[in-house]
Amino acid sequence: MPLQTPPLRGIHDERGAKFTEFGGWDMPVEFDSIQTEHAAVREDVGIFDVSHMGQIHVTGPDATELMQRLTSNDVSRLSVGDSQYAAITDEDGIVIDDTVVYRLPDDDETPQESHGDGDAADGEPTYLFVPNAGTDEATHERWLSYRNEWDLEATVDNRTDEYAMFAVQGPNAVDLVASITADPVGDLERFEAQYATIDGVDCWTARTGYTGEDGFELIVPWADAAEIWTALDCQPCGLGARDTLRIEAGLLLAGQDFDHEDNPRTPYEAGIGFTVALETEFVGRDALAAVDAAGVDERLVGFQLIDRGVPRHGYDITTTESRVIGTVTSGTMSPTLEKPIGLGYVPVEYAEPGTTLQVVVRGQSKKARVETTPFIDTV
Amino acid sequence: MSFDVPDERRYLESHEWALETDGVVRVGISDFAQDELGDVVFVELPDEGDDLEQGTEFGVVESIKAVSDLYAPVGGEVVAINADLFDAPELVNEDPFGEGWMLEIEADDPDELEVLLTAEEYEDQIA
Lengths: 379, 127
What we know:
- The complex is a heterodimer.
- By secondary structure, chain A is α+β, with helices and mostly antiparallel strands.
- Chain A has 3 domains: 9-53 and 161-248, Gyrase A, domain 2 (2-Layer Sandwich); 56-158, Aminomethyltransferase beta-barrel domains (Alpha-Beta Plaits), CATH 3.30.70; 297-371, Beta Barrel (Elongation Factor Tu (Ef-tu), domain 3), CATH 2.40.30.
- Chain A contains 8 helices and 19 strands.
- Chain A has a 6-stranded mixed β-sheet with strand order 10-11-12-9-3-13. Chain A has a 6-stranded antiparallel β-barrel with strand order 14-17-16-15-18-19.
- Chain B has one domain: CATH 2.40.50.100.
């Protein structure tokens, strides 16, 4: 299958980016160096092209019910301009994907038509949600098939190829974005969003991110992507730095820290139980209520290697007596802490911060210690 | 993008370089290799006194994004390692042919170097 290319592939190439395949997309992995890009985001501001993320648009009289029944969080609590992190779970409560659900202005059709001035009183509730790279088609199918099964009135469009997505992150990110728009984006709270006009283009601008820093994620019509990218003039960052930043922030990567086939996990095991609103009805709810009552056997922990080495996805985690009890799901040399850190699943009796474990690095047992996550101070 | 490939050295297809002086062969990785790896964060080297055979693994270099095995360009005894790399692995990025060197081997048979790539051949490989 040919790789999908983000709208700015050529611009990134000219800037000297290296590319990698991710979720079926040919994405920039590194522009200068991971450490340079990582430091820019921790200390100043950096921009990521995350156009590989999916965008699915849902509108209609039953849009809220459809979103409520297919995501784990409480969608009914979202007013226009709110967003929430949620899991998409199967009947057994196993995480298929994680996503952010945005409530757009009612009847909003951006980018296909111009959007209205906000909350039309009698409009239809409208949502945009962002499934992970490469999962948009299956997710779109899932929404359509449940909509039909439940006979709900909602339009579900996969608009992944119509929107670019940029993340502007770092302590100076808010000032940078505020400096090129007249809209008061600095007034947004975490997880709030609004349209901001940049160079005459309306960009859905959300105070969200995947780095542990303050900043915005902007959803931009594909056709205007180059203009907006150029206007947001700061250190370009690739997927390499995105990964080290999110590991330090203790944030999950779908397909790696959980995987519906290869590493099936409930939100509780994965440490995102806060996305589960058991008082709502959704696919997987009953199974998760049972898990919540019984407790989990294993859960995701953060750890630091005390011995020299770098933990990597797939390495064994053992007790100090070398009994295998888990697997590393993500690991790196933390550029901020300059220490090897990672995430992995262990039985709950080994999950307390301070517990000593071992990670097997190429046949050698390295001492590790369970740490609280996030590993760094985050917003 | 062009990379340094000093003429006087020999190269392995796996991107190590070898520089012989009076039977002692200094070893490191090429400018191309350090650029491909990105920020080097960890280097694992053998102990002084270890015996290596040509073509066998002698250590590991890890960047943030990748792990790469290191292969001995020549057989012999390890007579020196660059211990500076344990605290400053970034030297491999900053100066791969100089301060980023990794180890020195007292070659059992310096003629083994003749089978390695010349600078010109290595340049063709990475072109």
